[in-house]
Design goal:
Blueprint: H1 9-14, E1 31-35, H2 54-60, H3 65-79, E2 83-91, E3 97-102, H4 108-116, H5 124-131, E4 136-139, H6 140-145, H7 154-165, E5 170-177, E6 184-191, H8 201-226, H9 236-246, H10 251-258, H11 262-276, H12 281-291
Parallel strand pairs: 1-3
Antiparallel strand pairs: 2-3, 2-6, 4-5, 5-6
Length: 294
């Protein structure tokens, strides 16, 4: 078997201490917006010019977000990974970047630190994937050895320490482009294994297939989210459920109208009650009417 490090020669010279950080000269940092699995809404209509991959089809057809999450976590585990990183990056007119980060498949505290400490502007995985077409295989020791993070920078040391504490010690990341918008996306898989030597060319190939499939089923949903002024807006299916709720329909009636399952309707209603602090259906209906959500 070939060790993945043997195909990473371009990275040794390409990423230097000068380009590890994306902070603008005026001191402003990239903005990060989080989204969750339950906010993803899929267009189930078949498109004549596109046939989804088998994995993407399975993920799209999952009956609930919980089923999809279990499927993805199972596939990660089979390959030897613990966590999934999905991060869409958009360049703004003022020369900065906005990051849209899928929070579901990483430890919650790590995601909070990633935003609070602005780690996206020094994350070597993001820099690598935005600047090179090659897969980026890494471990924390490699970050330091290849000088991808400054050894004497306190925030960079904090980044490495927080990565280790979260159990993200090695992994692989890919950079993809949404062909419709030319927006860049980073898809990464992380492991608690301290060394990247376990990531062989076979693992890279399987990870690439999984990464492409995940990007295929998420990318369109992310585009819809990114067009909203804020990611706190309800999804299309949640808005339809709320409209039915406002009209007095039961869960079974809502499911029949929207051609979904009552379990899926209940899942979204529980999420919406938590989101708006409603104790029951009546309070939720009152809240959406008061806020003019639908």
């Amino acid at each position: 078997m070939t060790n993945a490090a043997e195909i990473l020669v371009p990275f040794e010279d390409e990423f230097t201490p000068q380009n590890w950080c994306q902070v603008r000269s005026d001191g402003q940092r990239p903005a990060i917006s989080f989204f969750e699995e339950q906010q993803l809404v899929f267009d189930m209509r078949k498109k004549e010019d596109h046939v989804p991959s088998r994995i993407a089809s399975e993920l799209i057809a999952a009956s609930t977000p919980e089923a999809r999450m279990a499927n993805i976590r199972s596939m990660l585990s089979v390959l030897g990974f613990n966590f999934l990183q999905y991060e869409a990056v958009q360049n703004t007119n003022d020369g900065n970047r906005e990051h849209y980060f899928l929070k579901t498949y990483v430890p919650g505290e790590w995601a909070n630190q990633y935003a609070r400490k602005h780690y996206c502007d020094l994350d070597p995985r993001v820099s690598a994937c935005l600047n090179s077409p090659f897969p980026f295989v890494w471990d924390l020791q490699y970050f330091s050895k290849a000088r991808l993070v400054p050894a004497h920078d306190a925030r960079a040391r904090g980044f490495l320490e927080d990565m280790a504490h979260a159990g993200m010690c090695s992994g692989i990341a890919f950079g993809f482009i949404n062909p419709a918008t030319h927006r860049q996306v980073v898809v990464g898989f992380n492991s608690a294994n301290p060394s990247k030597n376990w990531i062989t060319t076979s693992v890279i190939g399987q990870a690439l297939i999984l990464g492409l499939s995940i990007h295929e089923f998420i990318s369109g949903c992310v585009e819809k989210l990114m067009h909203h002024p804020g990611l706190d807006a309800v999804s299309d299916i949640q808005k339809q459920i709320l409209e039915c709720l406002a009209n007095g329909l039961s869960d079974k009636e809502i499911a029949r109208n929207l051609k979904t399952t009552a379990h899926n309707v209940d899942y979204h209603l529980r999420y919406l009650r938590k989101k708006y602090g409603a104790a029951n259906r009546a309070q939720l209906a009152y809240t959406i009417g008061r806020l003019a959500i639908v």
